[in-house]
Fold this sequence. Notes:
Structural class: alpha+beta
Number of strands: 8
Strand order of the largest sheet: 4-5-6-8-7
Helix content: 25-40%
Shape: elongated
Number of helices: 5
Strand content: 15-25%
Amino acid sequence: xxxxxxxxxxxxxxxxxxxxxxxxxxxxxxxxxxxxxxxxxxxxxxxxxxxxxxxxxxxxxxxxxxxxxxxxxxxxxxxxxxxxxxxxxxxxxxxxxxxxxxxxxxxxxxxxxxxxxxxxxxxxxxxxxxxxxxxxxxxxxxxxxxxxxxxxxxxxxxxxxxxxxxxxxxxxxxxxxxxxxxxxxxxxxxxxxxxxxx
Length: 198
């Protein structure tokens, strides 16, 4: 049963692998000592089911990853390509990292978590956070950990799980400080629940 989670969550592939290992160990032990142990059919059946779910899970997640980016958009990691870059100090002034500057006005696809504001329906814009640690437990995200997503297509509903967005990424110079004041914006034409978590 646990191996079937491989079809739903990437971590489930590990359960499929564990089922494969334990099933193989049980099958070998039963074959070595047929007089002492029974359950050969059950062990080999579990082995086969774990193998199928593990391979199926890997294939399904690989397919989702390969097909989730809309045509014309570049996959960008919110965490490593944007948030971790932070600001850099140039001649005594904070500035955008050069790698992030290269993304300005590019068509990008990225994932994150919607910051909860109380409104759940008809959102034409929202704050996207790099993870759900700060956005969902009362923390204040850093400016570089947030993106103001402005929907250029239909309004969307709030989701607690990871979402995917695609659109034109822009830097917001001189945005100043303050609560929920991101320095990046995304004019989005695509929004959906994330099909993969990586």
